[in-house]
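Duplicate of #3305? Posting structure anyway:
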């Protein structure tokens, strides 16, 4: 199996504008993914995603192109800011389809982490499982914030 890029695609019954807010604003993100999120939605901003008591990840926003794309880096070594070569790159690309949106998720940078093969495989599968669990939550939450 290839562990270079993790990709997922889902259709959401909400406009790209709504979905963009849901994936790029901490107050929305924490409703479907981390327990807490604190960051500014602007390129170069550094913030945090908190998953339980003992799992806090630093994120660095890379690209903000509403309502088409939101990109950030995360999973850097302790004490280091996420940068090219030491972190994973998460890209949410949004495509309008009818009255909804297709969200394309890509998580890359796996090989650049320099992990041993077994560690790489375990982390990759952990993230696959995670996105498979959280993307349906995103889908459901985005629909709940659609103006009525």
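Output from current build:
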């Amino acid at each position: 199996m290839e562990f270079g890029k993790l990709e997922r695609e889902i259709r959401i019954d909400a406009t790209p504008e709504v979905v963009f807010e849901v994936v790029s604003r901490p107050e929305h993100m924490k409703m479907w993914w981390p327990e807490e999120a604190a960051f500014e939605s602007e390129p170069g901003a550094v913030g945090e995603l908190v998953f339980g008591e003992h799992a806090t990840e630093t994120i660095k926003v890379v690209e903000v192109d509403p309502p088409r794309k939101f990109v950030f880096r995360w999973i850097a070594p302790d004490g280091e800011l996420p940068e090219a070569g030491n972190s994973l790159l998460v890209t949410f690309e949004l495509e309008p389809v009818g009255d909804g949106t297709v969200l394309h998720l890509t998580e890359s940078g796996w090989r650049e982490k320099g992990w041993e093969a077994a560690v790489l495989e375990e982390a990759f599968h952990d993230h696959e499982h995670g996105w498979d669990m959280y993307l349906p939550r995103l889908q459901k939450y985005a629909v709940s914030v659609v103006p009525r």
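Confirmed duplicate; merging threads. The first strand starts at residue 5 and ends at 12. The beta strands are 5-12, 36-38, 46-50, 56-65, 69-74, 88-97, 100-108.
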